[in-house]
Amino acid sequence: MENLALIDSFSEFKDDKLIDRVTLMAILEDVFRNALKKKFGSDDNFDIIINPDKGDMEIWQRRVIVADDDLDLDHLEITLTEARKIEPDFEIGEEVSEEVKLIDLGRRAILALRQNLISKIHEHDNTNLYKQFKDLIGEIYTAEVHHVRPRVVILVDDEGNEIVLPKEKQIPSDFFRKGDNVRGIIENVELKGNKPQIIMSRTSEKFLEKLFEQEIPEVFDGLIMVKNVVRIPGEKAKVAVDSYDDRIDPVGACVGMKGSRIHGIVRELGNENIDVINYTTNIQLYITRALSPAKVSSIKINEETKRAEVFLKLEEVSKAIGRGGHNIKLAGQLTGYELDVIREGNIAEEEDDVELTEFSDEIEAWVIEEFAKIGLDTARSILKQDVNDLVRRTDLEEETILDVMRILNEEFNA
């Protein structure tokens, strides 16, 4: 019969889709019933028999036998003469089941069936894909680079699903080639029309938190909790960790011997500098730890305004602020307090000090800005620094720094 192996006639859909045979049969039945309703006005007197094992189906039409001159509804009734062509001993009032050939539906109906089947299978796949990835939001996922575009990288997973990694979700140092494996978290799944768009992120704090779970067994087992994560992707991050077991050093366990445990995470994030600190509910101690490596002299907290004045010796100020202001910015985000740095130092020296901007005729503005980024905005604050340390912490050449120090020394030695 023409209905045999219908699945094979639509094999391009079956083979390319993650859809089981039983589900495909159910979709087929639904599609054919719709076609029958359209052609005959109703599908009530039709039986569709599907064999999921063999991958075939049959359509049978049931009609009541009536006298030859009493035919009213030909899709529900059949004349005695026509019925006896099927079986000679049929009588009026009996029911006849007759197989409907696929070709009987007509060429146009068959084309419509095909298009409807495509639509139903796509709809099924998209619904399943949307549900599958909705459940994966916030989880690490790995996919292969399929195409690199200026504003987005298109990834494909092992099942052929397309995943989007937008430019703004990439770490600044990320560089991908076709075929590279990329890790990130599934951040969102959006419906674009009827098609789900899966968004991956490598800049999310959640990605760093999940990397801790993957790479550090104690975090995975729940012996160590990641309490908070803040980061400037590709630059610096701070992670607060805690443990219910006093015998476990959470920071030591996360960092490992000579940084062995955290090294893989740092490498994954493009050498992002990660500070791991012990979480505490003592806010003064928490802020002190968050501002590491700077040594804090004292802290004055205003609970109402969520601000804290942090008192530091002059030589500790630049460490607290950090390159580009990253350290103090992240410390504030981690603790939930706006941090104001108050310098401590020799009063006579401070009174004698000169703002760096006063030297704008002799020192270029961008050089002054480079020093300001690491908290050095006065002449004496720069002169107290080690030249090699300044080369490491700024984007300035040694020759430029020495020239600045010469200009500043002339001010105080004049």
UniProtKB/TrEMBL annotation:
Keywords, A to Z, come to: Cytoplasm, RNA-binding, Transcription, Transcription antitermination, Transcription regulation, Transcription termination
SUPFAM superfamilies attached to this UniProt entry: Nucleic acid-binding proteins, Prokaryotic type KH domain (KH-domain type II), Transcription factor NusA, N-terminal domain
What Pfam families would the database entry show? KH_NusA_1st, KH_NusA_2nd, NusA_N
- Report the residue ranges that make up the NusA-like second KH domain in this protein: 284-346
Q: Where is the Transcription factor NusA first KH domain?
A: 202-279
Q: Which domain of life is it from?
A: Bacteria
Function recorded in the entry: Participates in both transcription termination and antitermination.
**Family per record:** Belongs to the NusA family.
Binding partners and assembly: Monomer. Binds directly to the core enzyme of the DNA-dependent RNA polymerase and to nascent RNA.
Q: Which protein, by its recorded name, is this? A: Transcription termination/antitermination protein NusA
Source species: Flavobacterium arsenatis
Q: Which gene encodes it?
A: nusA
